[in-house]
């Protein structure tokens, strides 16, 4: 297909040389998520030129692309057939590649209803730390039997290998989406959202900040009128697609604060006893908190509510950015690193200091 550039052989040679010299590599796409994770050292290795859509089967709802393929190119191709990446991958600076989206494992506002990158990943081609090209999974769900190693790469931040290709399940794009707005105290808003969810309202995104709330729904104009009447909500008087894209890419003023920005994952109904303005997404399952409070205090409070906290932006990147792992999980992570990257050359320290 168009813009198809296969750089797998040159990448393989670069990895073999680096493994031989035990020389760390800093894997880079467009750099749109370079702020995320611990500070990196090592020789930059660009993956952005390894790009191109290899195959796209609209009737099978699957697309296969090289990792350096820009998200914009993929989404434009899908849009022509009325389809989309259901996890709504963030772009941050307006760029981003499909490989970076999978490696970061991040999702946009549609996540609770459209799934995560891990959920939609069917198969991959991977370049490991010894220069071997490995293939896991397939292009349809029925080909994925046993433990699916391809999904380990979603959220691995490039620490286990170089993603060369990915086959991803896509979904039909809603024909219409509308945004409803309302103002209410947080407990009242949560009760209303919960009622809407259990009554089957086709919600695709939520937003709450300072008692101002927005709900995105996918439905016809007739259904919109029924929802408006039943719940006493008003449709926005302006198109809101730009609002949700800005939320996805963190372009809103809330995200431009200089204080450390925390990404808190919690049960939607969890009550977090902490000071500060919190921006809520995913019906309360994802919360953003800009604060200078100590990391230990934040993580302790979140743990009490069965959640975890990531220092997402503006913190000291020499310290721990991700939530501490349970010792048993940490052992498994290190064993996986030893299998896929025995010389420790891929993004060392991106997740945690010791791997």
Describe the structure.
By secondary structure, this protein is of the alpha+beta class. It has two domains: 8-173 and 334-340, Uridine Diphospho-n-acetylenolpyruvylglucosamine Reductase, domain 3 (2-Layer Sandwich); 178-313, no CATH class. 26% of the residues lie in helices and 23% in strands. The chain is built from ten helices and 17 strands. It has helices spanning 8-21, 71-79, 98-104, 111-114, 117-120, 186-198, 221-231, 241-248, 295-304, 327-340; strands spanning 25-28, 43-46, 53-57, 62-66, 83-84, 121-127, 133-137, 162-169, 171-172, 178-183, 203-209, 212-217, 234-235, 261-265, 278-281, 286-290, 308-313. The chain has an eight-stranded antiparallel β-sheet. Strands 3-4-8-6-7 form a five-stranded antiparallel β-sheet. Strands 1-2 form a two-stranded parallel sheet. A hairpin with a 5-residue loop joins strand 6 (121-127) and strand 7 (133-137). The protein is globular, with a radius of gyration of 21 Å. The two termini are 37 Å apart. The model has no long low-confidence stretch (mean pLDDT 92).
């Amino acid at each position: 297909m168009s813009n198809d550039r296969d750089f797998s052989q040159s990448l393989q040679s670069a990895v073999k040389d680096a493994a031989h010299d035990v020389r760390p590599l800093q894997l880079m796409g467009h750099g749109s998520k370079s702020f995320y994770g611990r500070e990196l050292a090592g020789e930059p290795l660009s993956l952005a030129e390894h790009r191109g859509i290899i195959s796209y089967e609209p009737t099978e709802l699957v697309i296969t692309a090289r990792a350096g393929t820009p998200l914009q190119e993929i989404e434009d191709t899908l849009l022509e057939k009325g389809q989309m990446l259901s996890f709504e991958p963030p772009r941050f600076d307006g760029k981003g590649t499909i490989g970076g989206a999978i490696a970061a494992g991040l999702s946009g506002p549609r996540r609770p209803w459209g799934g995560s990158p891990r959920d939609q990943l069917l198969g991959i081609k991977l370049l490991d730390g010894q220069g071997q090209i490995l293939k896991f999974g397939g292009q349809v769900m029925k080909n994925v039997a046993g433990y699916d190693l391809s999904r380990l790469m979603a959220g691995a931040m490039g620490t286990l290998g170089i993603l060369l290709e990915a086959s991803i399940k896509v979904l039909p794009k809603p024909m219409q989406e509308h945004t409803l707005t309302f103002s209410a105290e947080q407990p009242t808003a949560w009760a209303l959202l919960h009622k809407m969810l259990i009554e089957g309202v086709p919600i695709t995104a939520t937003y709450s900040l300072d008692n101002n709330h927005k709900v995105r729904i996918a439905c016809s104009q007739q259904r919109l009128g029924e929802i408006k009447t039943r719940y006493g909500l008003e449709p926005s008087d302006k198109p809101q697609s730009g609002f949700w894209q800005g939320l996805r890419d963190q372009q809103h003023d809330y995200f431009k604060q200089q204080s450390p920005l925390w990404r808190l994952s919690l049960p939607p109904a969890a009550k977090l006893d902490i000071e500060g303005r919190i921006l809520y997404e995913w019906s309360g399952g994802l919360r953003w908190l800009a604060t200078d409070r100590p990391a230990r205090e934040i993580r302790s409070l979140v743990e009490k509510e069965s959640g975890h906290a990531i220092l997402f932006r503006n913190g000291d990147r020499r310290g721990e950015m991700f939530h501490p792992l349970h010792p048993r999980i940490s052992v498994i992570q290190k064993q996986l690193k030893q299998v896929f990257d025995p010389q420790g050359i891929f993004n060392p320290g991106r997740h945690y200091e010791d791997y």
